[in-house]
Amino acid sequence: MSWRSKTYQLSLSSLCLLFYFFLREAIVSYRVTALYHFAHLPDFKLFRQPLLDVCHELDLKGTLLLASEGINGTVVGEADNVDKLLGFLHGKPELAGLGHKSSFTTELPFLRMKVKLKKEIVTLGVEGVSPHKAVGTYVEAKQWNQLIQDPSVFVIDTRNTYETDIGTFKGALDPRTTTFREFPHYVEQQLDPKVHTKVAMFCTGGIRCEKASSYMMEQGFDEVYHLKGGILQYLEDIPEADSLWQGECFVFDDRVTVKHDLSPGDYEMCHGCRRPLNQDALNHVDYVAGVACQYCVAEKTPEQRAAYQERQKQMELAKQRQQLHLGQKPIKPPLGDLL
């Protein structure tokens, strides 16, 4: 082989390598981080502005909820900047034990940064319930299968119907609640401490079942367990071949659902009513992208449908120009149900 051929091959290899690095930089990856922590925050109102300032400085987007009982929410941004926010939060003594769960996406699921003041970071609606006073037993994902296969354990899904209809654990009880506020009524009507002596609960990221365990212990349930890190931790840690999870898991951003190992799911969101839709619903005659689906078409007025159609048109034009359009509203769960 001549020196010219070797030089040509070397140059071609160098160009391919440069092209690879160019493509890698061109595909921007954002880190999506869900976080929560129950903590005594008497100064939570004063903490709002410093927290919002830090988020803006780091160019983060998302929603964080602050209350006297702690913090809850989801942020998205460059990975290093999310780490800086977590460092800032961990620097507050009350939040030193803050937990979080991260994944990555190439599209921004949120377009603004909001820090909201709330009465509760997850809305149960019962005064005085606090994991600081009483809380169930945390169960690691790797021990969860053994627990829920015990026939003496009643397994309860603390999430809402639009989540449970997509996926749940094999054999779990579904309270059929539409908001977390309805969970105490379900416990009052359907559960008995003398009958349901062992209860194991789960939710998306851990926050709802943690607070639910506190409530149930106050109601006299002595042996209460809950999945640490929630479904998301389980799907990440447990191989699909060993899993007792059935279906997909709803998440509160533009991914809509995730599968095992947190890979993107097969559902899409109706931007008319925010319901998750499977392929059958997307193929339904009443589905119009960005406008309505079979579940909400009768709920929308002609004026609303016209407005949604215009919004969808502007979003598509913005996408063609590779711009963000503020009409692309992020998925909005009931406040406090972020995990």
Can you tell me about this structure?
It is a single chain. With 339 residues, the protein is of the alpha/beta class. The chain has three domains: 88 residues, Alpha-Beta Plaits (2-Layer Sandwich); 111 residues, Oxidized Rhodanese, domain 1, CATH 3.40.250.10; 63 residues, no CATH class. Helices cover 33% and strands 20% of the residues. The protein is built from ten helices and 15 strands. Strands 4-1-3-2-5 form a five-stranded mixed β-sheet. A four-stranded parallel β-sheet has the order 6-10-9-7. A two-stranded antiparallel sheet has the order 8-11. A hairpin with a 6-residue loop joins strand 12 and strand 13. The radius of gyration is 23 Å and the shape is globular. About 5% of the residues have low confidence.
CATH homologous superfamily caption of the largest domain: Rhodanese-like domain
Largest sheet properties: 5 strands, mixed
Uncertain parts: 20-26, 328-336
Number of domains: 3
Sketch the topology as an H/E string, one letter per element: HEHEEHEEEHEHEHEHEHEEEEEHH
Tell me the helix content.
Answer: 25-40%
User: How does the helix and strand content classify structurally?
Assistant: alpha/beta
SS elements, strand count: 15
Concise overview:
The chain is an alpha/beta fold and 339 residues long. It has helices spanning 3-26, 44-57, 79-90, 141-148, 161-164, 183-190, 207-218, 230-237, 279-282, 302-320, and strands spanning 30-38, 61-67, 70-77, 99-105, 113-117, 137-139, 154-157, 167-169, 198-202, 223-227, 245-247, 249-250, 257-258, 268-269, 276-277. The protein is 33% helix and 20% strand.
